[in-house]
Amino acid sequence: MKPTHFSRHMPFIALGGLALLAGMWAGLVRIGWAIPPLQPAAHGPLMISGFLGVVISLERAVAFGKRWTFAAPLLSGLGAVALLLGLPAEIYCGLFVLASAVLIIAFATTYYQHYGSKIEWSGLTMIGGAVLWLVGNGLWWAGRPLAQATPWWIGFLVVTIAAERLELGRVLLLGRVSRITFLLCVALFVGGLKLSLFAFSAGLQLSGAGLIALGAWLLYFDIAHRTIRQKGLTRFIAACLLPGYAWLIFAGALWLMWAPYFSGGPFYDAMLHTILLGFVFSMIFGHEPIIMPAIVGVPIVYRPAFYGHLVLLHASLILRLVGDLAAQPSLRIWGGMLNVIAVLAFIGNTVIAVRAQLRAQAQPPTQSSTSPR
Asked: Taking the complete model, does pTM exceed 0.85, yes or no?
C-alpha cells in the first residue's frame, strides 16, 4: 500500500468517527444518563445513516476503486454533521437520501460490470439493501415518524450483511435449494416492511418472521459453524458471527410479540438493540480485521484481547435487555453505558493493533549472519 493510503481515507474515517461518538453520547442521554445533551439528540439517525452509512459505503467505495463512489460516505458523513449543527431537516435528510442513491448506483454499476445481464443473487441483494436505506431516508425526509423509517434502516443493515455472507457462501458451494431459501427469507422480511407502510404492526410482525427465518438460515448455512473449530483470527470471526445470528432470531421473536410497542419505551429499546448491538455490532467486530486493512492500508494483527470487547458487548446487551423486560431502569442504563464502553474498547484494541503493526514495519530488518562481507 502507498503511504498516502490512510490519509486519503482519513476524512471519511473522521466523519464516521464523529457520527459514532456523537450517536453514542446521544444514546446515553436518551437512556437516562445525566450528561449534557446534544442538540438535536438524534441517536438513531447518527448511528445508522451517519456512522454505519459512512462505514458501509466507504468499505464498498474502497472495493469499487472508483473516485465518484466516495461521494456516498462523504454525503453520509456531511449529513451527520448537518444534523449535529441543527441545520434544517431538508438539508441533512437530503444529504442522507443522496448518499443512499449514490450507493445504489455504485452497487448497480459494479454488478453490471461483473455480471452483465446474468443473475447473481448476492449482488442483487446488496442493491436491494441500499434501496431499503433510500426508502428509510425518504420516509424520514417526507416527515414520517422516526419509528416508521427505522425498520427500513434496519433492513438496510440486515440485508446488506446477509448478502455479504451469501457471497462468501460460494466457498461452501451452496446449492439451489439453499439459495432459494435465502431469497424467500429476505422476501418475507422485505414484504413485511412494505406492509408496514399501510398496517404498521402487522408489517413488523411479518418482518419479524423474516428475521427469524434469515437468522436461522445464516446459523445453519454460514461457514462460521465450521470455522469456529479453528484457531486465532478465524475462530474469533466465527465467535462474532454465530452469536449475532442468534440475536437476530431473538430480535425477530420480539418483533412478532411486541410490534405494537415499536414507537418508544423499554420494549422498543429491546426490539432495536437486539439487532443493532447483538447482530450488527457483532458483525462489525468480526469483519473489522478483514475490512479495515483495505481502508487504512495497514494489516490488523489478531490479538486475544479482541475477545474482551466481544464478551463485554454481549454481556452488557443481556444486562440491558433484562432491564428492559423486567422494568428495571437502572439495569437498562448501566447496560447502555457498558454497551458504549464495549464499542470504545473495540476502537482501542483496533488502534493498539494498528500501532503495533506500524512499529513492526518501521523496524529495520536484521542483518543475516550469512550476508556477504
From this structure: yes
